[in-house]
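Sequence in, structure out. Go.
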Amino acid sequence: MASTFKSGSPQKFSLAKLLEEARKRQTCGTKLSSPILARCSRSQVKTNPIESAPPLIPLTCKTDVKLYCKNQLFLRIAENGAVGGTPDYTCPYAMLQVQSVSINTVLIYSPKVNLYLAMDSNGKLYSRDCPNDEAMFHHVHELNDFHTFASNKYYKETLHDMFVALKNDGNTRKATKTIRLHKASQFLMISMNNCK
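Output:
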């Protein structure tokens, strides 16, 4: 589902706002309408610790996936923490977990190396062992069935947000030079839950 863009007054998300929203939903028993949460039963919903977060933690649904970029590479986090792409479908470092924190907000985690994908203010992708606001991504299921992941911390709801993207050589593309429509920024989410 594509997001609605409002010119002039970009909506900013803060970690505190997301936590407050999750607490309200926990109290009211409201279901979150994320594409990932929609596929999860109540037994699959777990809590996930977020760095510098208040005691109550947002609901998280975990989905095992491989993220296949439109330029024919799988996103991977290597053993040394380096982020990049690989053409090898069987690469164990390409097995990732998308954890839904709130509506259209996710964490991307590598269970193989116990690291989270994150993006700094310069648009550089890196990995870290504990999630924080730089590790949260605004997830949009585009009209062409591909998915985009923009930095939630620096999300401005414009065409030139900072997206997770891969170059053809397997290196990460600097997010300040990415756009939503570029093939380097678009990923298929291949669910591995149905492949076991």
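Check: The longest strand covers residues 59-69. Confidence is low (pLDDT under 50) at residues 1-13, 29-57.
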